[in-house]
Amino acid sequence: MEALNRSLFLWINATPDTPAWLISLATLVARDLITIVPVLIVALWLWGPRSQVGSQRRLVLKTAIALACALTVSWLIGSLYPHPRPFVIGLGHQFLAHDATESYPSNHGTIIFTFAIAFFCWHRAWSGVVLLAAGLAIAWSRIFLGVHWPMDMLGGLLLGMLSCLVAQVTWHFCGRRLLHNISSLYRLLFAFPIRKGWVRE
């Protein structure tokens, strides 16, 4: 498996002969495309058609549970079974500055794939597909730039799937109560902008 991991990495990884524009594009995708996650979470909670705000907020909370689960497990795996990044062992070429932290599973991959699977399961299939495409672009870019292995991204995808399953089970037992409590806190903290009509109640 490790041999396959290294072979795939070297096949995807950029080289000094790679065009500068492609390195720049990959850098933009690797660093900035992940911001779609917090932007969508905030937008779905604060705004939207009045008839859909309730379902949007259920989606946000389910996704938040899945992300919390995924990142916790990711941290545990990285702490208990550390795996060096490609540049740490001197393999391939690195074009993106990064600390020499544990590589498996990729936090970027874990976040975007969890988000994509959540939207596919609890929102619309097309939105999940679009986010999955964004996830694949992020996965490619971070391997291409030499800071992750292909298996790091596969690990993030599998962890995203498992975490969404955990979130669905958790929601079955305490989701309604959680939504009620967080909505009450939100109305208290955002009373002024709600009253002004800047955000939904």
List keywords for this structure.
0% strand, 8 helices, 201 residues, undecaprenyl-diphosphatase activity, mainly alpha, Vanadium-containing Chloroperoxidase, domain 1, hydrolase
Overall mean pLDDT: 94
CATH topology of the domain at 34-173: Vanadium-containing Chloroperoxidase, domain 1
* Low-confidence regions: none
Report, as a whole number of angstroms, the end-to-end distance.
Answer: 51 Å
Look at the helices and sheets and give the structural class: mainly alpha
Number of helices: 8
Q: What percentage of residues falls in helices of 4 or more residues?
A: over 70%
- How many whole angstroms does the radius of gyration measure? 19 Å
Oligomer: single chain
Structure description:
By secondary structure, the chain is mainly α. The chain has a domain at 34-173: Up-down Bundle (Vanadium-containing Chloroperoxidase, domain 1). It has eight helices and no strands. The model has no long low-confidence stretch (mean pLDDT 94).
